[in-house]
Write a structure and sequence with these properties.
By secondary structure, the protein is α+β, with helices and mostly antiparallel strands. It has two domains: about 1-65, no CATH class; about 80-270 and about 310-319, no CATH class. It has seven helices and 16 strands. It has helices at about 70-75, 80-85, 105-120, 150-155, 230-240, 245-250, 305-315; strands at about 10, 15, 25-30, 35-40, 50-55, 55-60, 125-130, 140, 145, 165-170, 175, 180-185, 185-195, 195-205, 215, 220-225. The chain has a six-stranded mixed beta sheet. Strand 8 (about 140) and strand 9 (about 145) form a beta hairpin. Residues about 265-270 and about 270-305 have low confidence and may be disordered.
Amino acid sequence: MTLPLLDDVKLDGFPVEQLYPGWAPLNRAPVADDFSVVVFTEASTSRQACWWLEGENYRASHVLALDPSLRKRLLTAMDPVFWPLASGVLGSPLPDQTGPSCDSLPEIAVNELAGSWLEGYAPHTLLLPSGHADSGEALPCPNGRKIGANRITALLAAQRGNGPLIVSSPFTALPLLAQITFETGPLSVSRFQEADTVFYLIWNNVLPALRPSFYYPDAPLLISDDPGGAMIPGMILSWYARHPEHAALIREARPFRAEDFGVGQASGLRPKPSDENSPPPPAAPAPSPLPVEQPASATPPHASRQGLKSRLKSLFGRL
């Protein structure tokens, strides 16, 4: 007797009549050409796994385990989905037009496809542990750009809170507001854009003690202590492929404004002084939208906007 969703599937030429205990097929979906995927789930743990099929024949339990010729054909068939995303929104400003999505495919299947596809698109991504990147010195990127001294240290000290996520640019030290933040698997991903430059900060919700990972696709550079750090770029690409609404979310995102700096918003970006060196708190200070030193005299009402930017840059430059 065959199993639901596996009626016509052949494993080594025979019908599938039994699975490992506790596992059951969850869904089956066409992918591209004559490839399809079956997703299984384990009842006791909610773990998932894939079978990749060519026609009615089982070929592998992971995209990377496919015969090289089959893998190449499958991944090439995914070019119309992944290529516009990888050359566009992943590491550049959002293009005017977006390509097709694969929001009908299971998440685990798209994760496997995206990670495998991106290995061919950006095979030389430089992966560094944070200790090799936050020495305080300027960091040259593989694409020739340079991240300023102490900028990576400041980025990796960023802390999430209830308010907007604000960091200083690793290239100009100006404050940036996260455009979008999304969840994919155990990761919380925040996208930042400054002019034509896009980068990400990624937190692993399962490993909260880890510092965030930094991903700069155009370099391509990934700074991460996450045990699964090498999978981060593919998981971000997968999220874009499964969520076509990302385009509208990014277009609607607003840039950083001075009022985003409520009281305490900069505290997570500064090194915390030790208790014994901390002065006593002042009595009932008036809240200020910008945590900068007040001048001796009031700022004239006609102060230029450039002056505000200079003060903000000075603030972040001291981090």
